[in-house]
């Protein structure tokens, strides 16, 4: 188990593609850490650079006390699960799982015993003689995990390990993986482009954009207090309201509606300043009759989300989303009011 420390980590691919841009990051011992970001932002490159499968252009990678920046992958003591699992199709499950031990020149008997033990822990007992082609997607994923675990590495690197599973299996695998990581206590870096997955599983999340980290925090922090418009629009199962607004007379005017200034914005904004008013649909209280400090408009769309509905109001041409609990849903074309909770609203000046 170990701390992972990245300092000024930079990776430039041929063609001047800057996949990692002077990135600093510290991942704690035993932490379940998610790297979250859109496709192409550098998540896989970061993992591969930590694993030693890519060479850093500049900067350093430390695992525990060791600077591993120039060490070969086999000497870094990491276990990696690739997005497509990368199992050896011609090898049995046992041989796949035992592979890292074979590389370490562990004897056959010992490596088969170790493989059997890890396989048992992951519920793969009956499948040891099969080849990957004879396994379901979920079983293949477990074999890939087992292979990463077999040599008992200090660090797990998981590149979108759940993305090839169907929706239902993915939810089961989420719980399974989280529980396994808890029990093993191994420092784990988990890559995903799925914000719900990151929020559900991680101790902390780094949100990446174009080779940089835009925010690091606990799931609660990045959900409640996204640091910028990019993070605000990337996190959340419903789209965060991000409305062009202006500070005016100690209030903020958004979609033609004067609203109280969020407490922490006071003193940081000047009168007349253009800002973005941000509030999640979760933090608007919907009303079918007039109320103060509310966005008011015509109900444009009502989307059923199960135990709640996402109501979209057309407020002077600006679409404002509010989550409404079971039973309180309006009908389209009715008039509606939605009061943002000021203590949950945020102002952004980064556009
Ligand atoms: P992610 O995993 O977040 O989707 P990647 O790390 O795969 O992102 O890619 C980051 C950027 O680096 C992208 O612009 C991608 O096209 C580029 N890239 C990745 N691998 C290579 C490579 N081997 N050669 C050149 N460019 C690459
Ligand atoms: Mg990737």
Automatic annotation (TrEMBL):
Keywords: ATP-binding, Cell membrane, Membrane, Nucleotide-binding, Translocase, Transport. InterPro entries: AAA+_ATPase, ABC_transporter-like_ATP-bd, ABC_transporter-like_CS, ABC_transpr_MalK/UgpC-like, Mo/tungstate-bd_C_term_dom, NA-bd_OB-fold, OB_MalK-like, P-loop_NTPase. It holds the Pfam family ABC_tran. The keyword tRNA processing does not apply. PROSITE patterns: ABC_TRANSPORTER_1, ABC_TRANSPORTER_2. The keyword Transport applies. Residues 4-235 form the ABC transporter domain. GO terms for molecular function: ATP binding. This is ABC transporter ATP-binding protein. It comes from Actinomadura fulvescens.
């Amino acid at each position: 188990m170990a701390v992972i420390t990245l300092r000024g980590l930079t990776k430039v691919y041929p063609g001047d593609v800057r996949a990692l841009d002077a990135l600093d990051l510290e991942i704690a011992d035993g932490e379940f850490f998610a790297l979250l970001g859109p496709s192409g932002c550098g998540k896989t490159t970061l993992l591969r650079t930590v694993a030693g499968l890519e060479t850093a252009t500049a900067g350093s990678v430390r695992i525990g006390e060791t600077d591993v920046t120039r060490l070969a992958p086999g000497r870094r003591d990491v276990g990696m699960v690739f997005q497509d699992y990368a199992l050896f199709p011609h090898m049995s499950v046992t041989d796949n799982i035992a592979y890292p031990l074979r590389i370490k020149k562990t004897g056959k008997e010992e490596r088969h015993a170790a493989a059997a033990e890890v396989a048992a822990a992951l519920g793969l007992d009956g499948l040891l003689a099969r080849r990957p082609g004879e396994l379901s997607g979920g079983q293949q994923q477990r074999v890939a995990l087992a292979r990463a675990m077999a040599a008992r590495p200090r660090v797990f690197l998981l590149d979108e390990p759940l993305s090839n599973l169907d929706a239902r299996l993915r939810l089961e695998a989420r719980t399974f993986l989280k529980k396994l990581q808890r029990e093993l206590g191994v420092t784990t870096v988990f890559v995903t482009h799925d914000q719900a997955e990151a929020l559900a599983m991680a101790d902390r999340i780094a949100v990446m954009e174009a080779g940089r980290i835009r925010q690091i925090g606990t799931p609660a922090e990045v959900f409640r207090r996204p640091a910028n418009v990019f993070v605000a629009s990337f996190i959340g199962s419903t789209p965060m309201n991000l409305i062009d607004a202006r500070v005016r007379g100690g209030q903020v005017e958004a979609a033609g509606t004067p609203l109280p200034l969020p407490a922490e914005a006071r003193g940081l904004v000047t009168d007349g300043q253009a800002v973005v008013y941000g509030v999640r649909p979760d933090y608007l209280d919907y009303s079918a009759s007039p109320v103060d400090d509310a966005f008011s408009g015509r109900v444009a769309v009502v989307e059923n989300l199960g135990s709640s509905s996402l109501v979209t109001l057309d407020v002077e041409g600006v679409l404002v989303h509010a989550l409404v609990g079971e039973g309180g849903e309006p009908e389209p074309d009715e008039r509606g009011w939605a009061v943002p909770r000021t203590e949950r609203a945020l102002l952004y000046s980064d556009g």
